[in-house]
Amino acid sequence: MEELLQVKELRKTFTLSAKQQKIENTKEKVKVAVDGLSFTAYKGEVFGLLGPNGAGKTTTLRMLATLIKPDSGDAILDGASIVKEPEKVREKIGFLTSELKLEDFFTPNYQFDFFSGLYGVDPQVAAARKKEIFERFGIDRFAEVKVGNLSTGMKQKVSLVVSLVHDPDVVIFDEPTNGLDVLTAKVVTDFLLDLKSRGKTIIVSTHIFSLIEKICDRVGIVINGKMVECNTLKELCGDKSLEERFFEIYEERVGKIDE
Amino acid sequence: MNNIVTIIKKELARFFGDKRLVFTTVIMPGLLIFLMYSLMGEGMMKQLTTEEDYVAKGYAVNMPSELEPMMQGLNIDWETWDGKGEEKKDEILKAIADGEKDLLLYFPEGFMTEMAAYDLQTAKGAAPNVEIYYSSEKSNSYTTVSKLQNFFEAYEESMVNKYDVNAGMGEGTFGAYDQASETGILGKMLSGLLPMLIMTFIFSGCQGVAPESIAGEKERGTIATLLVTPVKRSALALGKVISLSVIALMAGVSSFLGTIFSLPKMMGNEVNFDAMTFGVSDYVLLLVVIVSTVLVMVSIISIISANAKSVKEATTMMAPFMIAVMLISILPMLGMDIGGKAAYLIPLFNSVKVMTGIFGFNTDLTMAMVTVGVNLVATGVLVTVLTKMFGSENVMFGK
User: Is A118–B231 a contact, with Cβ atoms under 8 angstroms apart?
Assistant: First the structure.
């Protein structure tokens, strides 16, 4: 299989303010969010990052999306370094996270055209893509309604569509179904499967076991900023469910959950 | 380049798509300034006209017959009172307080004789005291007493008159003593006032849009959506600065037009606006200087906004810059020329100096070009700083 993403020893620390130290209940001034994390994703596979809140999944994806820089380490995405060639990386990926918001003032129609322009998509190609994807997500019904007037589910659909205006080969989704109602979550999950069937490489972070089991080929378990397990679902779980296996690994590494 | 245009289009679409924002940022300032200054001017003119035509109603006690003819020009209808009886005095004072009468003028008995005999060097007691009772809360009473006080001061000066300076100087003496031209006087007035107003209008125009566009995008989380696209940080910075400058310029022009159209009414007859002899080249030069000024100001405010976590914080952080702009803008009004030619190398301050020259009908084309060049270089440096800030995760995502 062709390696599309090689993540090498990524490390990221954050300086904690006095207020953050109080919230985190620590005297340490520096928090290690990602601690030498490495993994490889192959072309056309869905790779899932699984871990509890604060494990470093989102920070890892933000580094891969070049929103933040690693303290050390690097990741090579389709030949481009996230450290040395961030603009090239941005051209190749579609990134979706709840952190990215759309201007409430504009309509989905305008947003799609605007971001197509920024990605340099040919207007005719963009128009055809917009028609197809808007119909698929039912956005055509509210294409001229300002984003500020849409429901959370509708907004999530528009954000997802906007992140894919340039039809990227690598899609990075952080908690793609978080906060969505069951119907919208199903639409998103089905769409991810559709992207997979079209040969796209998908990196997805979540703490929803069923989503990983449904769409991922391989999974990496992240705890305290470290990749503690990385394998195919079958190799990782054997006869057990992913949930059972995850808690086994968690307890081996961290201790009893109620401790 | 394409991305710069895309960013500019989006910023302008955001602005022009919001009719309320267009009205409050562009139309309302000019309209309000025009209405406010015009009404203030007309109000003042009306007040002056009323003062001139108004015949005040006063009581006089022991009015010397020598003074009566001299006081005729004051437009006061005198009613004589012998000054006897406290009840009558209270009645008069109540009438003054109620605005039915305007004043009570009280000369001591034998005022003219006492005054003639009084010698400051040899006198043992106080000088004869003329009492004027009035009400400062009634404008007619207050205005009339002011006129009366001026009369008495002039009369007192005439008693000891030893020499004059430029005797008879006043209206119609142009050219006799004062060598200024009408254009020069107009230029002095305009160059003191307009640079300050223009800088203020430009600042408020920039302040109205830049924090919302940059700190607002950070606050709402929409800047991250832009930063994850392949758009170059420099294109983002330049696109923002150019589009915000266009909007700020429109707001500034609106306020400027409001001021220009209301100035004749504001200044009344004090200034002859027919002496205004600006040519097309002056207007073009002024526009170029204003554009370069707007670019610098928008860039500075954008940097301040990029540093802030919210629009509110950006507005607070802008206070020192606002004070600096006000300070450099007010210098020509105070007649202060600081720094000579070297001052043209200081962005914004150089704009004030060039505008002072243009409005004073004393344009220095070379220095104007230097100013535009310096401002453009400063804009380039500031946009580079803004670019770096857009690329810094601490600035963009710091908690």
Answer: yes
Same-domain check for residues B274 and B370: yes
Residue with tokens 């993540």: A7
Q: For chain A, how far is it from start to end, CA to CA, in angstroms?
A: 42
ipTM value for the complex: 0.88
Rounded Cα–Cα distance for residues B47 and B53 (Å): 10
If one counts the domains in chain B, the total is 2
pLDDT tens-digit readout, A208-245: 888 898 899 999 999 989 999 898 988 888 888 888 88
Structure tokens at A171: 């899609």
Residue from A102, A103, A171 to probe the interface with B (highest B Cβ count within 10 Å): A103
Residue type present at position A157: K
Cα–Cα distance measured from residue B363 to residue B172, given in angstroms and rounded to the nearest whole number: 29
Interface mutation target, options B20, B212, B228, chain A, most CBs of A under 10 Å: B228
- State how far residue B376 is from chain A, nearest Cα, in angstroms: 27
CA-based nearest residue to A43, from A204, A193, A199: A199
The whole-angstrom separation of Cα B69 and Cα B365 is 59
What digits encode the pLDDT tens for the residues A138-197? Answer: 899 999 999 999 988 888 889 989 999 999 999 999 988 887 788 888 888 888 999 999
Does residue B276 lie within any of the structural domains?
Answer: yes
Residues B10 and A55: their CA atoms lie apart, in Å, by 37
pTM across the whole model: 0.79
Cα distance between residue B350 and residue B337, in whole Å: 11
Residue B129 inside a domain? The answer is yes
Q: Is B170 inside any structural domain?
A: no
pLDDT band for position B60 (50/70/90)? Answer: very high
Is B233 an 8 Å CB contact of chain A? no
DSSP-based three-state secondary structure for B105 = strand
DSSP assignment of B152-183: HHHHHHHHT----SSTT-STT-TTTS----HH
Whether residue B225 is found in the same domain as residue B374? yes
The answer to whether residues B9 and B132 belong to one domain is: no
> What's the CATH code of the domain at B116?
3.40.190
Domain membership flag for residue B7: yes
- B40 with B155, same domain? no
Q: Are residues B380 and B316 in the same domain?
A: yes
What's the rounded Cα separation, in Å, for the pair B149 and B232? Answer: 72
